[in-house]
Amino acid sequence: MGQEKSLANLSELKANKENSGVTAILISDMMRGYCFIEGESQTKVEDLAADIRILSNRAIQDKEVPISDLVEQLNPVPSIQGLDEGDIVEIVDGPFSGYKAKVMRIEQGNQEVTLELLDAKMALPVRLHADYCKKISSN
Predict the structure, then answer these.
(1) Half-sphere exposure of 34 (CA within 13 A, CB side)
(2) Helices 4-17 + 42-49 axis angle, to 10
(3) End-to-end Cα, the chain, rounded Å
(4) Secondary structure of the chain as H, E, C letters
(5) The pLDDT of residue 27 is above 70
(6) Which end of the chain has fewer beta carbons closer than 10 Å to its terminal beta carbon, N or C?
(7) Domains in the chain, start-ordered, CATH in brackets?
(8) In whole angstroms, what separates CA 134 from the centre of its chain?
(9) Interval 96-119 mean pLDDT
């Protein structure tokens, strides 16, 4: 978990070097710990993954995933859509990572939110992209 991008990059490098039969590699920020590889056959996908150390053999599954299960990953919902003014969020990236804040204003056009840090000694407004916020509770 947390090495999805590395796995996808290694898989892509290996797929480009040889006639691997791999047609697509999909990783999603919304599904941590998963990397979907599409290929001509199960055997070709297993051969591709055989020498990649960050991938454990028990993680390779021999089942097809219906495209209907991946539609949400292919067309993700904008992160600002689930936020409302007054919600409590946790900042997940940047210099204020780990801080909790209250949503004061939402700007739909550029998907930015103005937050008031709850953990700060004084009221400090911070303007961040909505991708850096994880909703904790609604008010």
Answers:
(1) 11
(2) 110
(3) 32
(4) CCCHHHHHHHHHHHHHHCCCCEEEEECCCCCCCCCEEEECCHHHHHHHHCCCCCCCHHHCCCCCCCHHHHHHHHCCCCHHHHCCCCCEEEECCCCCCCCEEEEEEEECCCCEEEEEECCCCCCCEEEEEHHHEEEEECC
(5) yes
(6) N
(7) 4-74 (3.30.70.940), 79-137 (2.30.30.30)
(8) 12
(9) 91
Q: What does the alpha-carbon distance between residue 130 and residue 55 come to, in Å, rounded to a whole number?
A: 32
pTM of the model: 0.51
Q: Which residue has the tokens 């992160």?
A: 79
Token pair of 58, please? 């028990």
Average pLDDT, integer, range 101-129? 90
* pLDDT on residue 37: 79
Percentage of residues in the chain having pLDDT higher than 90 = 18
